[in-house]
């Protein structure tokens, strides 16, 4: 984990366009700039992704997200909204296995970024949804 590009940015080995830093995170401009102002919030602790977070790390990381999001929106009057995206594991499009959260300012429907949502509600009976719900509740209880 210490050899990822993000670990090298956190350590100062590789320069980045840093916009924020505290003892838990560093926020930098993403090189890809999917949309203008695209920012990454990277954990200083070298964890792979959300599955490695404990409550303390989550609290420390997610506490800064609103502040950075507001700065992104306030710096440019053309920002109409913001997507907050975190890819966890390769199947979910994670390509750098050091935890990071994308803040993507949105300027309109054709700004270069999009998500596809499909409604699969007709594929589940109420009984199937209840079974899934119960399994999730038991799984949560096991994590206490």
UniProtKB/TrEMBL annotation:
GO terms for molecular function: methyltransferase activity. Keywords: Methyltransferase, Transferase. The keyword Transferase applies. Its EC number is 2.1.1.-. It comes from the Bacteria. GO terms for biological process: methylation; nucleotide metabolic process. It is an enzyme of class 2 (transferase). SUPFAM superfamilies: HIT-like (SSF54197). A motif (Histidine triad motif) lies at residues 98-102. PANTHER family: ADENOSINE 5'-MONOPHOSPHORAMIDASE HNT1, HIT FAMILY PROTEIN 1. Coiled coil: none annotated. Residues 5-113 form the HIT domain. The active site is at residue 100. Pfam families: HIT. InterPro entries: HINT, Histidine_triad_CS, Histidine_triad_HIT, HIT-like, HIT-like_sf. The keyword Cell cycle does not apply. This is HIT family protein.
């Amino acid at each position: 984990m210490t050899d990822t590009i993000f670990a090298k940015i956190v350590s100062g080995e590789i320069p980045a366009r840093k916009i924020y830093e505290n003892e838990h995170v560093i926020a930098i401009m993403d090189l890809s700039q999917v949309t203008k102002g695209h920012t990454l919030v990277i954990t200083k602790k070298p964890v792979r992704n959300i599955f490695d977070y404990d409550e303390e790390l989550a609290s420390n990381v997610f506490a800064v997200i609103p502040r950075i999001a507001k700065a992104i929106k306030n710096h440019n009057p053309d920002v109409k909204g913001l997507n907050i995206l975190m890819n966890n594991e390769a199947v979910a499009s994670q390509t750098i296995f050091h935890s990071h959260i994308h803040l993507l300012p949105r300027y309109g429907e054709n700004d270069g970024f999009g998500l596809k949502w499909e409604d699969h509600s007709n594929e589940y009976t109420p009984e199937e949804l209840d079974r899934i719900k119960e399994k999730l509740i038991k799984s949560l209880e096991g994590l206490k």
